[in-house]
């Protein structure tokens, strides 16, 4: 798997009114892909998949908030109709089931419609592996922003998809149902930063960064 970093490709599409970073992760060699956090704007995601010429193996969710998960069910249906065969929705951890089963209600509270609830085909837990075109991503359970939040880490490529755990210069909010600030800080300090300063990450909103950059400059992580 030493050629993994050169085979892994990433296309980022901000979706929903919250500009959530849906991504298409794919293996350049086999053109096999996963879509992460398809919160909405499913037509736009399908168009991007067509342009890249990739086949989607699975849909991966970091957590159950509507801007991340609200398009997963219609995207799965559209892909299964186009590609044939099952396209499983995998993740997050089962502790986010209370969010996924009420996605449309949650979106309505924010004044948005057109988001669907989700019943994942596979719940994930810490230490699981998911594969994209044969490239393994390690699953890291990072509760705090939501109780079932997971992060996907590709060790050789030094790259992680972190959802709303950490952002460039900020961290996930913890004032939503079952948010926990101390758990979030522990997830970041004990599980993400030890992966290495050189690890680049795609957050759920805004620009990419590295754990090293955040370790020294993120106001929520720097002790004063
Ligand atoms: Zn969130
Ligand atoms: Zn979000």
Shape: globular
Mean pLDDT: 96
Bound molecules: zinc ion
- Quick one: how many beta strands? 13
Could you give the order of the helices and strands?
HEEEHEHHEHHEEEEEEHEEH
What is the beta-strand fraction?
25-35%
Rounded to an integer in angstroms, the radius of gyration calculated over CA atoms is 16 Å
Number of helices: 8
CATH superfamily: Ribonuclease Z/Hydroxyacylglutathione hydrolase-like
Class from helix and strand fractions = alpha+beta
* Biggest beta sheet attributes: 6 strands, mixed
Looking at the structure, the CATH topology is Metallo-beta-lactamase, Chain A
Low-confidence stretches: none
| CATH class value | Alpha Beta
- From the 3D coordinates, which CATH architecture would you assign? 4-Layer Sandwich
Written overview of the protein:
The protein has 224 residues and is α+β, with helices and mostly antiparallel strands. It has one domain: Metallo-beta-lactamase, Chain A. Helices cover 27% and strands 27% of the residues. The chain contains eight helices and 13 strands. The strands form three sheets. Strands 6-7-8-9-12-13 form a six-stranded mixed sheet. A five-stranded mixed sheet has the order 1-2-3-4-5. The longest helix has 12 residues. The chain is globular and about 50 Å long.
Overview features:
single chain, 224 residues, alpha+beta, Metallo-beta-lactamase, Chain A, six-stranded mixed β-sheet, five-stranded mixed β-sheet, 27% helix, 27% strand, globular, binds zinc ion
């Amino acid at each position: 798997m030493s050629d993994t970093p050169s085979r892994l490709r990433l296309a980022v599409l901000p979706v929903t009114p919250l500009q959530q970073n849906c991504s298409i992760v794919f293996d350049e060699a086999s053109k096999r892909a996963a879509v992460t956090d398809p919160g909405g704007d499913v037509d736009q995601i399908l168009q991007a998949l067509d342009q890249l010429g990739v086949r989607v193996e699975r849909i991966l969710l970091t957590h159950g908030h509507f801007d991340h998960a609200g398009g997963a069910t219609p995207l799965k249906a559209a892909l299964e109709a186009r590609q044939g065969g099952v396209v499983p929705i995998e993740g997050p951890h089962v502790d986010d089931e209370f969010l996924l089963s009420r996605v449309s209600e949650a979106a309505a509270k924010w004044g948005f419609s057109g988001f669907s609830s989700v019943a994942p085909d596979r719940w994930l837990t810490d230490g699981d592996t998911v594969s994209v075109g044969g490239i393994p991503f390690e699953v890291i359970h990072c509760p705090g922003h939501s109780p079932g939040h997971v992060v996907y880490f590709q060790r050789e490529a030094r790259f992680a998809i972190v959802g709303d755990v950490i952002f460039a210069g900020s961290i996930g909010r913890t004032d939503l149902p079952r948010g926990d600030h101390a758990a979030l800080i522990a997830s970041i300090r004990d599980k993400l930063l030890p992966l290495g300063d050189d690890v680049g990450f795609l957050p759920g909103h805004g620009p990419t960064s590295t754990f090293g950059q955040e370790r020294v400059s993120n106001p929520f992580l720097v002790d004063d």
